[in-house]
Amino acid sequence: MALRICSLDDLKPGKALRVKVGDEAIAIVRTPSGDVKALNDKCSHGEISLSEGFIDDETIECWAHGAKFDLNTGKPLSLPAYESVATYEVLIENNDIFIELEA
Ligand code: FES
Predict the structure, then answer these.
(1) Is the pTM of this model over 0.90?
(2) Which residue, by CA, sits nearest to atom 3 of ligand 1?
(3) Centroid of ligand 1 to alpha carbon of 94 (angstroms)
(4) In sequence order, which residues have a C-beta less than 8 Å from that of residue 1 and are 6 or more positions away?
(5) Which protein residues are within 6 Å of ligand 1, measured from CB?
(6) Which end of the chain is less crowded, N or C, counting CB atoms within 10 A of the terminal residue's CB?
(7) In the chain, how many domains are there?
(8) Is the pLDDT of residue 103 over 80?
């Protein structure tokens, strides 16, 4: 199931948006170079929203203790996080951002 998030123009490069889907919060991330990625919003190290973190083209860094996650795989690249966060497929259609969720 593809879920529309927002227009591409509503998410500026270098910004992230937190969206709630059922019980899950998902971070929709626009990298500085303009790609869009989606991953679980909760840092695997604590109750911190990754969408409030620091974004570059490949990673998002949790502001609390500095763990960096790969935006493509959700894998932690630095401690103190050692568990991955889930990632989601992103589709861009007619200037709208969708994420692909399991039905
Ligand atoms: S809560 Fe994210 S690194 Fe600690």
Answers:
(1) yes
(2) 65
(3) 36
(4) 100, 101, 102, 103
(5) 43, 45-46, 48, 62, 64-65, 67, 80-81
(6) C
(7) 1
(8) no
